[in-house]
Specification:
The structure holds two protein chains of two kinds.
Chain A: H1 16-35, H2 37-59, H3 65-98, H4 115-125, H5 136-152, H6 171-192, H7 196-227, H8 232-237, H9 252-268, H10 293-317, H11 332-350, H12 358-386, H13 392-425, H14 427-430, H15 433-436
Helix pairs in contact in A: 3-10, 3-11, 4-10, 5-6, 5-10, 6-7, 6-10, 7-9, 7-12, 9-10, 9-12, 10-11
Chain B: E1 29-33, E2 45-51, E3 54-61, H1 69-73, H2 78-86, H3 93-108, H4 114-142, H5 147-167, E4 176-177, E5 180-181, H6 189-212, H7 215-221, H8 229-234, H9 240-244, H10 251-254, H11 280-304, E6 323-331, E7 334-342, E8 350-354, H12 356-361, H13 364-367, E9 371-372, H14 373-383, H15 387-391
Antiparallel strand pairs in B: 1-2, 2-3, 3-9, 4-5, 6-7, 7-8
Helix pairs in contact in B: 2-3, 3-4, 4-5, 4-11, 4-14, 5-6, 6-11, 11-14
The chains are: A mainly alpha, B alpha+beta.
Chain lengths: 442, 392
């Protein structure tokens, strides 16, 4: 009988003890780890929560400020990385289910949960390739310029009362500014690659982002004008009386502003149907055609970090942030759930719609979205003028309308869940043969 | 290869006359699209002369997939050439086999049994469905919608299974041979085929809801790449391209072969519902409607399928009388023609193949100017070329 003998390889350097340990314990440890993946995951979650609480309650007050800052920044960095890793895996699973496929199933044994990690390892191992005629310093710099601002945006995003790195008076402006610096990295990368496809992608990104920043900012300004503060913590705090106090339902202009903001945020994140900068079928891979390995990963991370950041902004400003739908249960968990839902909608849209052409993108922005958001801003401001005790008649009218909007919001949510339930009930007809076997209750 | 001359909007020598400040000098950009590009559907190379996003001129260069199929035909026997026809338009191998078999039978005066004829129709139409599914799905992909492609592949998989059950192959079948089909379909195949048709027909509505009538999709394809009927005729376009331009020309109706005159079906034409007649959307939608017609034809053929032999008595080494014949069939992409010249031997003296993709591609340089860069993908996708047939 043929038996395979593991070739003896002499490992050198620092990794030797690690390799020895992995060889000795890996065959037992890794299956055990996978067997109890769920348990370990929840244990880790409990541990992290307990750790954060302990640090916040007992350790933090004793520490000098810079230690606290360091800890929070590292924590935020870890959060952004986790968001990107789960986002990439989630996108693949979501697209798989939408397309009646399975998505990654093997890596890490449970529904391919380790796929992003494996991909990341693969990217790190790749050759660090820079085209010969590229502008080398710019080429190296571009991924950092794209990723770092996307991370910086998280510094001002509040996850809850007290769960914010820096509660700035102009937090909203800071986040918007940081998000729009990302375009610089993209243009830099596209220009430095010295490839025409990259250049096209970069220029598209430039003109798209610059034009969609305006409706995006204007929609948010409508909300800011109704609250009277640019501080994100303050914006979240005024919405803590249950779901009817969320700014989304405050007046019809804000209700529409949420949707215009969401559309504009899709464009500013280069998400479909506005994914022209990397439109695969037109520009091979757009601005990151020439990037490979870890530099590409940084662009990728920047995209997912940006996706979550714009969703977080929408959550804080329109959807009540960390406040629960019924008062008194505020928690950062709500914030994460709502933002994740918005990220999920972004994925849903991406895998459903075709891409818009560049002239239609600009047309839609300049001719429709921009005037419409201006109108919303003016309308919302006028509404603020009359929605106060000086005009009791208008106040009554506003209350009725608010109730109606709240019902409309609930109806939309209900429709969504009804659709999901319909899809779940008819899952056998909606998916392909291969997926059917893996469905719950199959 | 022709050198491309740069056409300057503002010629450089003008710049020194002080008329135009040098910092706003704009140049045209030559963009080399392909041979490796996601939306050229193979190894087509298109050299685009662009002004920003605007395409001024598009020149297709082909020949990257040339395999001397016509020359090979002169060296192999008639039966041996059938597998080579599979490789012409590899998405519609059954139709290619049928065209070659018909050409040989026409020259040799070979009569095929009725069961073989009906089986040929069934397989040719099934392959038309598979090919149009591929075209529809990948057109969605060209427009940036990934999901329709996967849905189309899901259905195409079933057709492939049917083919595999009958011929043993999933892409290059060589199933339709000279004198009939290679062997009869296995027991239970007809039932599975009917099952597929019942499953498939409602799915076409699904594609229409997802892609065809999508507002973004219509905006991307309507009024883009308009090919008027005169232009389509002048450039010898065939298949969905000429029907998309509003001309009801279909060889299955015009010169019926293989008992197509016994079936009742319509020729869908482009009516310019979402733009002008002959735009990309029309060409796309003709394919979707043709799938419905193919289902109709297959249902009728399954009903008419009589018992009997599936092969005429043809010797293993086919020897044709000296002579010349030109035979065309309606492929999913247009008319595939075989011009067969025989000197009385066991292999063709000369075999000229008219590939529909090649002729359809010839209209690209006419349609492309003044399109946007993204419209080139829409144009190429709606012309629906297969490079294996363009280069042969």
């Amino acid at each position: 009988m043929f038996t395979y003998e593991r070739p003896k390889v002499e490992y050198k350097g620092l990794s030797r003890p690690i390799v020895r340990l992995a060889n000795k314990w890996g065959p037992i440890g890794i299956p055990l780890l996978l067997r109890f993946a769920w348990g370990i995951f929840f244990a880790a979650l409990v541990f992290v929560v307990a750790f954060v609480w302990l640090v916040g309650r007992f350790v933090n007050p004793l520490l000098p400020w810079f230690v606290r800052d360091l800890v929070v920044v590292v924590g935020l960095l870890a959060f952004v990385c986790i968001v990107a890793i789960i986002g990439i895996w989630g996108e693949r699973k979501v697209s798989g289910r939408i397309q009646s496929r399975l998505g990654p199933m093997r890596t890490g044994a449970w529904h391919g949960w380790a796929q992003s990690l494996a991909d990341g390892l693969k990217f790190v191992q790749k050759e660090d390739l820079i085209p010969q005629d590229a502008d080398k310093p710019l080429f190296r710099l571009a991924p950092y310029v794209a990723l770092v601002p996307a991370f910086c945006a998280y510094l001002a995003i509040p996850f809850g009362i007290g769960w914010v790195f820096h509660d700035s008076d102009v937090g909203l402006l800071f986040v918007l500014a940081m998000l729009s610096i990302e375009v610089l990295g993209v243009i830099m990368g596209g220009w430095a690659s010295n490839s025409k496809w990259s250049l096209y992608g970069a220029m598209r990104e430039g003109c798209q982002l610059v034009s969609y920043e305006i409706p995006m900012g204007l929609s948010l300004l409508a909300a800011v004008a109704s609250v009277g503060s640019l501080s994100l913590v303050e914006l979240g705090r005024v919405q803590d009386h249950g779901w009817w106090s969320w700014l989304l339902f405050q007046n019809p202009f804000l209700f529409l502003a949420f949707f215009t903001y969401y559309i504009a945020s899709l464009a500013s994140c280069k998400r479909s149907p506005f994914d022209l900068p990397e439109g695969e079928s037109e520009l091979v891979a757009g601005f990151h055609t020439e990037y490979s390995g870890f530099r590409f990963v940084m662009f990728f991370f920047a995209e997912y970090a940006g996706m979550f950041a714009v969703s977080a902004l929408a959550t804080v400003i329109f959807l009540g942030g960390w406040n629960s739908p019924v008062p008194g249960l505020a928690s950062p968990l709500w914030f994460v759930i709502k933002s994740t839902f918005l990220v999920w909608v972004q994925m849903w849209v991406r895998w459903t719609l075709p891409r818009i052409r560049i002239d239609q993108v600009m047309h839609a922005c300049v001719k429709y979205l921009l005037p419409f958001t201006l109108l919303l801003f003016v309308g919302s401001s006028l509404w603020q003028l009359y929605d106060n005790p000086d005009h009791p008649l208008f106040e009554g009218f506003a209350a009725v309308l608010r109730f109606g909007l709240g019902c409309l919001g609930l109806l939309l949510l209900g429709l969504y869940f009804a659709g999901a339930a319909y899809g779940f009930y008819h899952r056998n007809q909606l998916v392909g043969q291969m997926v059917r076997k893996h469905l719950p209750g199959a | 290869m022709k050198e491309i001359e740069l056409q300057y909007r503002h010629p450089p020598d003008l710049l020194h006359d002080g008329e135009i400040p040098s910092d706003i000098r704009t140049e045209e950009l030559v963009l080399n699209m392909g041979p490796q590009h996601p939306s050229t559907h193979g190894v087509l190379r298109v050299v685009l002369q662009t002004d920003g996003e605007l395409v001024l001129k598009a020149t297709p260069y082909m020949g990257y997939l040339h395999r001397c199929a016509e020359k090979i035909a002169e060296k192999v026997s008639y039966r041996q050439f059938t597998p080579y026809t599979d490789r012409l338009d590899y998405l519609a191998a059954m139709n290619n086999n049928l065209g070659f078999a018909l050409a040989v039978e026409k020259l040799g005066g070979i009569e095929t049994p009725p069961r073989a004829d009906y089986l040929r129709v069934i397989f040719a139409e099934l392959n038309r469905i598979a090919s149009h599914l591929m075209a529809t799905g990948s057109y969605g992909l060209d427009m940036g919608a990934f999901t329709p492609l996967i849905y189309c592949f899901r259905e195409r998989e079933w057709v492939m299974d049917l083919f595999e059950a009958a011929s043993g192959a999933r892409l290059t079948y060589s199933y339709i041979t000279i004198g009939g089909v290679r062997e009869d379909v296995p027991p239970g195949w007809v039932g599975r085929c009917r099952e597929f048709l019942d499953y498939f027909e409602p799915k076409i509505t699904e594609y229409n809801n997802l892609l065809s009538f999508n507002h973004i999709f219509i905006n991307r394809t309507g009024n883009v790449g308009i090919c008027p009927p005169e232009l389509a005729v002048a450039y010898g376009l065939t298949g969905p391209c000429v029907r998309g331009s509003g001309i009801p020309w279909d060889l299955r109706k015009a010169t019926p072969y293989c008992r197509y005159d016994e079936f009742d079906f319509d020729i869908p034409v482009g009516r310019g519902e979402n733009g002008a007649v002959g735009d990309c959307w029309d060409r796309y939608f003709v394919r979707v409607q043709e799938m419905v017609q193919s289902v109709r034809i297959i249902r009728q053929a399954l009903d008419k399928l009589v018992e009997g032999p599936v092969q005429a008595k043809v010797p293993r080494m086919v020897k044709l009388p000296a002579g010349e014949v030109y035979c065309e069939v309606e492929n999913p992409r247009g008319q595939l023609g075989f011009h067969l010249v025989s000197d009385g031997g066991t292999s063709p003296y000369r075999l000229k193949i008219r590939g529909p993709s090649f002729c359809n591609l010839s209209v690209l340089p006419v349609l492309a100017p003044n399109c946007l860069l993204a419209d080139i993908a829409a144009l190429l996708g709606s012309i629906d070329i297969v490079m294996g047939e363009v280069d042969r």
